[in-house]
């Protein structure tokens, strides 16, 4: 008689033993029933766990990396604008003081440059731009802004902390020192010091009134200096001085000198774009939470300091991230690191990207590259800055915008290909993160990709 177990190894392995006694058969059946019961319980628990995980949804963790001033904080603000609109609107008016501080900082930088020029110019030297009595008068009339700057920084809990190994010609830094808030404070704590809520007034009316009066005083000084600030910035001799020193203030973070007429008013309210452009540097690591309604997921985003001394704090965050967004400011091909003037910023970014791609512990982590500050890149190229002067490997390629972008994109791709422990998909976006509209479209694409990858890792897809 034909038996399937004679030809099927699996059937033969699970077939009852030959000449099995009734007692042995009963014991075997009881063991099989118990095994089925345990297996069914395990299957049911796994099903319940899967349902619970689907209900809870995994927390999506994203780390923002890149050198200082690469656009990490601006990218974070874009995520907040896109996915945490209610919180964004609550905080937006509080950015007024920071935007005023950005504006004042730029004016004080111009005043310092004028003071230096007036102190070092010889009466017989005709080469520098002609700084006259008008500039001395503007310097005196704008002096109150220094006190306002110090007061705002004190209220923010800010400290001008910069690393530099080379102060540059004449002992003056090509770029002004920056204010920053410590990691224990961050944006939220800093902004709280400028917010006035109804419940604050109920709980402590005196403190709320003092906050309002202080804000009115600051605004009053800024408004009173508006005409002189505009005259200083638009002055032809000042513009010539900046040109000769090769200082492009319009490329600095927190640049608002072209918006003096709009910002220096009593009823000024920050726009979304103003907040995106505002500069408030944080020292250390900041964690921000967003609830993305589409899909019902909580996102935790980590913004870390990008200066060389801050990079040692990156490593502990590498082993628990769903994705890393690396920001590479490709407009910086002709710039030097603020903390070490001997190092080209683009070369430093290449080095960081190579290190990131080569880490074995990140071989399974989704890495997304933002080639950022394309708007500033276009401005430089239109102004006649030649890439090959600063990047010898660019060779004789055309200095056209699209050619330059394509070159940088292929170079980063080649670094990833050569140094990744395992070949991975290459995600790259050409961005200008101060452009909220185009960045919103990019973020939607990034969000979908990160979320799918996160669900796949959590075994939900």
TrEMBL record:
Write out the residues that bind Mg(2+): 282
Give the source species: Russula ochroleuca
Q: Which residues bind GTP?
A: 372-375
Q: Does the keyword Transit peptide apply?
A: no
Region Disordered: list its residue ranges. 1-28, 160-180
**PANTHER family under this entry?**
GTP-BINDING PROTEIN ALPHA SUBUNIT (PTHR10218), GUANINE NUCLEOTIDE-BINDING PROTEIN SUBUNIT ALPHA HOMOLOG (PTHR10218:SF360)
PROSITE patterns under this entry?
Answer: G_ALPHA
Alphabetized UniProt keyword annotations: GTP-binding, Magnesium, Metal-binding, Nucleotide-binding, Transducer
CDD domains of this UniProt entry? G-alpha
User: What GO terms fall under cellular component here?
Assistant: cytoplasm; heterotrimeric G-protein complex
Gene Ontology biological-process entries: adenylate cyclase-modulating G protein-coupled receptor signaling pathway
Instruction: List residues traversing the bilayer.
Output: none
What Pfam families would the database entry show?
G-alpha
Q: What Gene Ontology terms describe what this protein does at the molecular function level?
A: G protein-coupled receptor binding; G-protein beta/gamma-subunit complex binding; GTP binding; GTPase activity; metal ion binding
Q: What is this protein called?
A: Guanine nucleotide binding protein, alpha subunit
């Amino acid at each position: 008689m034909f038996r399937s177990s004679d030809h099927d190894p699996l059937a033969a392995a699970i077939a009852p033993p030959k000449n099995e006694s009734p007692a042995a058969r009963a014991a075997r059946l009881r063991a099989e029933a118990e095994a089925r019961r345990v297996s069914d319980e395990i299957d049911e628990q796994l099903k319940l766990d899967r349902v619970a995980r689907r209900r809870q949804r995994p927390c999506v963790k994203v780390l923002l990396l890149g050198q200082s001033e690469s656009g990490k904080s601006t990218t974070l603000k874009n995520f907040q604008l896109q996915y945490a609109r209610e919180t964004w609107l609550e905080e937006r008016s509080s950015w007024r003081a920071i935007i005023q501080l950005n504006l004042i900082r730029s004016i004080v930088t111009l005043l310092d440059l004028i003071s230096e020029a007036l102190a070092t110019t010889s009466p017989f030297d005709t080469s520098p731009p002609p700084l006259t009595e008008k500039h001395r008068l503007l310097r005196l009339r704008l002096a109150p802004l220094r006190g306002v700057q110090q007061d705002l920084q004190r209220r923010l809990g800010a400290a001008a902390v910069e690393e530099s190994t080379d102060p540059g010609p004449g002992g003056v830094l090509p770029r002004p020192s920056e204010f920053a808030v410590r990691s224990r404070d961050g944006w939220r704590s800093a902004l709280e010091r400028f917010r006035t809520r109804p419940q604050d007034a109920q709980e402590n009316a005196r403190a709320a009134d003092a906050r309002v009066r202080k804000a009115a005083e600051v605004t009053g000084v800024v408004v009173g200096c508006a005409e002189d600030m505009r005259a200083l910035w638009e002055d032809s001799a000042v513009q010539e001085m900046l040109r000769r020193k090769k200082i492009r203030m319009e490329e600095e973070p927190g640049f608002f000198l072209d918006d003096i007429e709009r910002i220096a008013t009593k009823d000024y309210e920050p726009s979304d774009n103003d907040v995106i452009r505002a500069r408030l540097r944080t020292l250390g690591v900041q964690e921000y939470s967003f609830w993305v309604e589409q899909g019902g997921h909580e996102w935790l985003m980590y913004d870390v300091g990008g200066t060389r001394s801050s990079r040692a704090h990156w490593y502990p965050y590498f082993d628990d991230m769903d994705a890393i967004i690396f920001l590479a400011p490709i407009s910086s091909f002709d710039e030097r690191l603020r903390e070490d003037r001997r190092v080209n910023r683009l070369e430093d970014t290449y080095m960081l990207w190579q290190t990131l791609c080569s880490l074995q512990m990140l071989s399974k982590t989704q890495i997304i590259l933002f080639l950022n500050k394309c708007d500033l890149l276009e401005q430089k190229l239109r102004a006649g800055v030649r890439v090959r002067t600063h990047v010898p490997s660019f060779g004789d390629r055309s200095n056209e915008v699209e050619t330059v972008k394509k070159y940088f994109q292929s170079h980063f791709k080649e670094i990833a290909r050569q140094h990744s422990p395992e070949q991975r998909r290459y995600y790259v976006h050409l961005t200008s993160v101060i452009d909220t509209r185009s960045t919103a479209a990019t973020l939607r694409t990034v969000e979908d990709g990160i979320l799918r990858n996160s669900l796949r890792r959590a075994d939900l897809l």
